[in-house]
Amino acid sequence: MNAPIQTPLTTSEDTAPVDPLFLAAPRVSTFHGTQPLTNASGFFFERDERLFLVTSRHVVIDEDTQHLPDRLEIELHIDATNLTLSTGFSMLLYADGAAVWRQGRDSGSEIDVAVLELDRSALPENAVIRAFTPDHLQTAFNEVHPGASLLVVGFPLGFHDALHHLPVLRHAVIASPFGIRFQGQGFFLTDARTHRGTSGAAVVMRDVDPSQATAALPWKLLGVHSSRMDMGDRDVVLDESLGLNCAWYADILLTLTEPRTEEAAQEAEAPE
Questions:
Q1: Closest Cα to residue 25, out of 119, 166, 192?
Q2: Are 30 and 59 in contact (CB under 8 A)?
């Protein structure tokens, strides 16, 4: 297995001219064959030297809208000092007819998060990647106060810095008690202006006292942005949208990135 891609930014030669947060969130495009379908967001997560792309489950499959891509493409930087240089990296969503991503359920519902493991040996040798790890997960609920300031790192409507291939940030605040499952579901609410294309974005908070393990990417990972929250009985003429969003708790990544035994992999239920 290749060595981990995420390394501390310690020298001027390999230090990118932007906050490493921007290099942890690639643009995601979905395709069916060569036909482009949608734009979305995602981020990298590393565990035990294995590298994953995290996005929303409905990015890889959405039965309700018949969104059925068969591959994703992400954009990778290939020069840490010249961010105008990038390349596309394609990932198939099915192998021998079976889905290759992982998704999960909890006692409340299906969780709108999906992870795909990246084959490190297939990545460009000079790919510039920064990844969250289990050490970045925010597990102390009492440290996230009501109204706490967050960022959503993504590609609203596919919009981004097309020259430097970087995402944009939207400011958000915690809109429901962090650590409480809103209405029994595995997510919390944020108050932020979001758009289509933001699905799968990392919801983060600045780490003001990073540890040695998180110093290279000094941000706490709280959630995975999923979708806007709205009321079914809202009068679309008289009433504005609530402007609230669902963010699934990021600790689901510990379950989705657990090593699988061969027996468990065979028993895993593949999406239809």
A1: 166
A2: yes
Question: For residue 97, is it left (φ>0), alpha (ψ between -120 and 50) or beta?
Answer: left
Stated pTM of the model: 0.86
The residues near 82 (Cβ < 8 Å, ≥ 6 apart) are none
Task: Give the C-alpha separation, 115 to 102, whole Å.
Answer: 5
User: Over the stretch 2-52, which tens digit does the pLDDT of each residue have?
Assistant: 434 443 333 234 567 899 999 999 999 999 999 999 999 999 999 999 999
Contact 21, 153 (CB under 8 A): yes
Distances, alpha carbon 174 to alpha carbons 23, 101, 239, 260, in Å: 24, 29, 23, 34
Side chain identity at residue 156, one-letter code: P
Task: DSSP letter for 50, please.
Answer: E
Tokens representing 240 are: 């504005």
3 state DSSP class of 141: helix
Instruction: Give per-residue pLDDT as tens, 159-206.
Output: 889 999 999 999 999 999 999 998 888 999 999 888 878 999 999 999
Write out the two tokens for 52.
Answer: 């994953």
DSSP per position, 169-214: EEEEEE-S-TTS-GGGSSEEEEE----TT-TT-EEEEE-SS--TTT
Of 161, 174, 134, 165, the C-alpha closest to 258 is 134
Residue type, 115: V
Tokens of 67: 């969104």
Contact of 270 with 99, CB cutoff 8 Å: yes
Q: Kindly report the CA angle at 28 between 26 and 30, in degrees rounded to 5?
A: 165
